[in-house]
Design brief:
Blueprint lengths: L2 H29 L2 H13 L3 H7 L2 H20 L5 H32 L3 E2 L2 E2 L4 E8 L2 E8 L12 E9 L4 E10 L9
Helix pairs in contact: 2-3, 4-5
């Protein structure tokens, strides 16, 4: 046997092996990324697969933190006017209603996924674009953009939601609404 041929063949085998390993690692990194998990949420909605949806979204925690964020944003906007006791009374009333609000929202989300009420005429009502994904020591912060034209009622500008996701080992799960932007009445189309 020719020694050069054997060494060349072994080099080719090693190169192919490294290429296969690199491609496999790339797929693994993508399949275990927040972006892939968010795409699985979309697929679960399209397939009306509530179990898969709830794997990637902690519905209760998202609803709870979403209501908290909305209430905080609403109370800070309303806090500019009115007496201090009126704001305190309003905040107390809203806090009494919060559990019912959270329960109602999460039930509607589950029904919408199961019954396919997220689609209109075969086209998904929900259009979420992944704007930014930043991993940190607490998981991942993700900005999602919802085009204003697709919101109900339509808005002149896009709305943005920042969510936090936690690493579940082989997938990521959305569990907290961190910020809401563009949902206020001023951005509605007139």
């Amino acid at each position: 046997m020719n020694k050069k041929l054997v060494v060349g063949g072994l080099g080719c085998v090693a190169a192919v092996g490294l290429l296969v390993a690199a491609v496999g690692l790339g797929f693994y990194v993508y399949w275990t990324s927040p972006t892939y998990s968010l795409r699985q949420v979309r697929k679960a909605v399209d397939d009306r697969d509530l179990a898969r949806f709830e794997k990637y979204v902690d519905v209760r925690a998202i609803c709870d933190s979403g209501v908290d964020r909305w209430l905080a944003d609403s109370s800070s906007a309303a806090g500019a006017g009115g007496a201090k006791w009126e704001r305190a009374l309003g905040a107390a009333a809203v806090m009494l209603m919060k559990p019912a609000m959270v329960d109602g929202i999460q039930e509607e989300i589950r029904k919408a996924v199961q019954e396919g009420r997220v689609d209109v005429d075969g086209e998904s009502r929900v259009e979420l674009n992944i704007d930014e994904v930043v991993k940190d020591s607490h998981g991942a912060l993700v900005w999602l953009v919802m085009p204003g034209r697709r919101l109900d009622p339509p808005r002149a500008s896009d709305a943005r939601v920042q969510i936090r996701m936690r690493d579940m080992g082989t997938y990521w799960q959305a569990y907290e609404v961190v910020k809401l932007e563009g949902f206020d009445d001023e951005t509605r189309r007139r």
